[in-house]
Design brief:
The structure holds 2 protein chains of 2 kinds. Chain A has helices at residues 2-22, 30-38, 42-45, 61-74, 89-98, 120-123, 142-145, 148-158, 272-287, 292-299, 329-341, 355-360, 391-400, 414-418, 438-457, and strands at residues 51-56, 80-81, 110-114, 131-134, 164-168, 183-188, 216-222, 225-229, 242-248, 253-258, 261-266, 309-314, 317-323, 346-351, 381-386, 408-410, 428-433. Chain A is an alpha/beta fold. Chain A is globular, with a radius of gyration of 23 Å. The chains are: A alpha/beta, B alpha/beta.
């Protein structure tokens, strides 16, 4: 009965794929949702590729997963992936059903899947990864993810015992997940910009996991990312087998070290965050057996997906869309630090309200007080426009961060808020948006682009 | 004057410590003192204007109970003397009689009050809160985000009367615990920052008179906007 039910679910879900394409609804999770509805054990019965790789973590998993898939595909190794859909169980089911024939024969030898941390309990019992990479674990949505220790415990309980882990040695929260599993670490060595005391509002790894004394850091990059040790016991951060060094943001390169072997790679962007993403992706690809020649040749043809970052010159202004994930204090802190550190004068529109929350309730703004909004208090930032239902909360937080009152502009309507920017010549105009507000931000961006074009024509 | 923050290395989950930083910015030469897990709390030996403690992880709850237990005689004495404490989020559970864990075992609490907590890691409870602090004009708005609830009676020693949302648990209309000036609430995050009337009340209790709040006008604007939203009967309170 189970198998019959599975095949009915598979065929119905497969049939829905062309129907959705015809009706221009492709790219949704509907096929997977349908399959799971008709057969809740769908993921158990669907044939899987011989090798399964998953990428999870709070931040960077989409970037790393896309990079790994791109490199594999560009080096002639087609992989089953879920980048067209979501990273929850229905997204995995959608990917899986497209990866089998109508007779449930697997069409791929390898799957590389992005998996949402909270969905791992519903995925890993059926989809057992050979390799799992965890990018990092940070604070995320308060409501859903509670705190990073909770997510670490959640992953420890979910990841199968036979899965080999590729872990970030510089993140002592994710580095300690599933301690009995086989593992290998990646990390980034000392950098000129490192500090030894945390300058961020949050650091979730301040005490030794063994003796609870205050940890010290040989170097600290941001929040709890760095190399920690306990002065009172023998606890130390693990050693990395895959190690990036000589990260040079001016030359946009890093050196990737494995033992005595080194190789230079081009950085994806000039952010430390993406240096970690690149290091993680190369480490995972090395675990998958690719040579450095294959990886760097394929990497040369890849770029960050446009939904995370894109820029365009209009007249003398640069218009930049930059992801700043809503309700995620760390992602926003990183985005704010990055933007404030860019050369030249800047104008910023914050379109980061959680649109989903606005429909039925009120977004919990506590995360704003974990976030390093202080980075936006910078003389090169001419003005910051805030918008949406939480505009007044953003305004209060910006003022508490020391941003001068005359620089903070407010209108609940995002298009009207965009109109409050200065549009001064030679400035970079940033639209910082969340995942939830991407479509809205794209529309606002188009309106800003129109304004800039009209200005440039005059 | 000193604001003592207890165990900020692990008790600062949702912008909690901003409460103390915010109040310290309200003038009066206020200083922040951060007491670590292995330190003796300052309130044990000297007067402080406010002792603040924020929410923590489940493991952190056990560490905090162990850290505070040796000082409970002093803490009880201070509470009787009227020392001002503000305890937010799941730190409230530490001062109850026990926390019942998912495996049925108990984590013994500090026993300042008789309520007990039941931890439920399978269901994250998220809700908005609208209530009032008796004797203080102006509603309190807030957020709850927690694994479990507290039970037992706080009828004679509640902190906030619930207008919308829930109290100690979904069946309760009385939120938090107040013993003299010891205030404990499940509300998380920057409670004082988001509620100018509550912040002003705390400052009065701290002995700081007639002082402006940081960016006060913006604070009231944000508070009033949130209040309008929370008073809207269409707004769903549970996430």
């Amino acid at each position: 009965m189970g198998k019959l039910r599975f095949f009915i679910a598979l065929w119905a879900a497969k049939l829905s794929v062309p129907l959705l394409r015809v009706t221009r609804h492709n790219g949704t999770n509907f096929p997977g949702e349908l399959a799971l509805k008709l057969c809740p054990d769908f993921l158990k019965y669907v044939s899987k590729p011989g090798r399964i790789v998953t990428v999870t973590g709070t931040n960077g998993k989409t970037t790393v997963c896309n990079l790994v898939c791109d490199v594999l595909e560009k080096s002639g190794r087609p992989v089953l992936n879920n980048r067209a859909g979501s990273n929850i169980n229905s997204g995995i089911a959608t990917a899986m059903l497209t990866g089998v024939s109508v007779f449930n024969r697997a069409k791929f030898t390898t799957a590389v899947l992005e998996v949402d941390e909270r969905s791992s309990k519903r995925i890993y019992p059926y989809v057992c990864p050979d390799l799992t990479l965890i990018t990092n674990l940070f604070r995320d949505s308060i409501m859903r993810n509670a705190h990073p220790g909770y997510i670490a415990d959640f992953l420890t309980q979910s990841i199968p015992a036979k899965t080999r882990l590729v872990l970030n040695a510089d993140d002592l929260i994710s580095a300690r997940v599933a301690p009995d599993n086989e593992r290998v670490y990646f990390g980034i060595g000392p950098m000129d910009s490192d500090v030894t005391a945390c300058i961020n509002r949050t650091n979730d790894m301040q005490i030794c996991p063994n003796c609870h004394s205050a940890l010290k850091y040989e170097y600290l990059r941001y929040h709890h990312i760095g190399k920690a040790y306990c002065p009172d016991c023998n606890f130390r951060a693990p050693q990395s087998a895959y190690y990036a060094e000589q990260v040079d943001f001016d030359a946009r390169t890093l050196t990737f070290r494995e033992g005595e072997q080194t190789r230079q790679y081009a950085l994806l962007s000039d952010s430390i965050f993406n240096a970690y993403n690149l290091t993680a992706a190369v480490a995972l690809l090395r675990e998958l057996g690719l040579t450095h020649d294959e990886i760097s040749a394929a990497m040369a043809q890849t770029r960050l997906v446009a939904s995370r970052y894109n820029e365009e010159m209009i007249g003398t202004n640069k218009l930049i869309m930059h992801m700043s994930k809503e309700k995620n204090a760390l992602a926003c802190s990183r985005a704010f630090e990055y933007v404030s550190g860019q050369p030249g004068e800047k104008e910023i529109l914050l379109v980061m309200n959680c649109i989903g929350d606005e429909k039925h309730w009120s977004e919990n703004v506590s995360w704003l007080y974990d976030c390093d909004v202080e980075f936006l208090n910078h003389p090169d930032i001419r003005c910051i426009a805030v918008t949406g239902k939480r505009a007044w909360d953003y305004r209060q937080r910006l003022l508490l961060a020391g941003v001068p009152e005359e620089k903070v502009r407010l209108n609940e309507d995002p298009f009207a808020a965009a109109g409050l920017l200065d549009y001064a010549p030679n400035t970079s105009i940033y639209v910082l948006h969340g995942v939830d507000s991407l479509n809205l931000a794209n529309r606002v961006r188009a309106a800003i682009a129109d304004t800039l074009r009209k200005g440039a024509e005059q | 004057m000193t604001i003592e923050v207890l165990y900020p290395e692990i008790c600062n989950l949702y912008g909690d410590v901003f409460n103390a930083e915010y109040l310290a910015r309200c003038g009066g030469g206020m200083q922040l003192h951060r007491t670590g897990l292995k330190d003796e709390p300052r309130f044990v030996r000297e007067d402080v204007a406010l002792v603040y403690m924020g929410g923590t992880t489940e493991q952190g709850q056990a560490l905090c109970i162990d850290a505070l237990r040796p000082y409970m005689d002093a803490l009880r004495r201070r509470v009787e003397e009227g020392q001002l404490f503000l305890v937010t989020g799941n730190a409230m559970e530490l001062f109850g009689s026990y926390i019942q864990l998912p495996d049925g075992s108990r984590l013994e609490g500090l026993g300042l009050y008789d309520t007990w907590a039941v931890r439920d890691m399978e269901r994250r409870y998220n809700s908005l809160f609208l209530g009032e602090l008796p004797g203080v004009e102006g509603a309190v708005t807030g957020y709850k985000s927690q694994f479990g609830h507290s039970y037992g009676s706080n009828e004679g020693n509640f902190l906030f009367a619930v207008q919308r949302g829930c109290g100690l648990n979904p069946d309760s209309r009385l939120e938090g615990v107040r013993i003299h000036n010891f205030m404990a609430t499940y509300l998380t995050g920057p409670l004082a920052v988001l509620n100018p009337p509550f912040a002003k009340h705390l400052l009065e209790l701290m002995g700081v008179q007639d002082t402006a709040l940081p960016c006060e006008s913006a604070a009231w604007d944000a508070y009033r906007a949130r209040l309008r939203e929370f008073e809207n009967p269409e707004l769903q309170f549970e996430y």
